[in-house]
């Protein structure tokens, strides 16, 4: 009999570890999260909207005009005012940064990480880009992925014929 994941007992977590639901709840407890409309107003007042979704996801779903595309794997380096790899916008710890992901989960973790770096005004958009679209706020795209044209059939010059 083959043992599948659904028939396996759950592993015992190591002492002191937390599940992702606990980590997410802790991150959100330190944020003043914004619904899409309030996030839009904050951006119009000067907050930076940072889209952390991968390029393929932005192409597939669209983007918010004027947002900064900074993928999640480099976010802290781009916004830490102490870091030589920081963006020109990362001038101090008071910069209002609003993080946007697709559905508002990864953005909460990312905004909490920016707060850990010292950006005390970092937060995220409740419901992410999907909620932004549903709210009818400005968005562009999606952008069709550029695919290479199909290859032409090989030219048969007759050399293989017998």
TrEMBL record:
UniProt-recorded Gene Ontology molecular function terms: transferase activity
Gene3D superfamilies on file: Rhodanese-like domain
Keyword Metal-binding annotated: no
InterPro entries xrefs: Rhodanese-like_dom, Rhodanese-like_dom_sf
Signal peptide positions (record): none
Sorted UniProt keywords: Transferase
Domain Rhodanese: 43-141
Name by which UniProt lists this protein: Sulfurtransferase
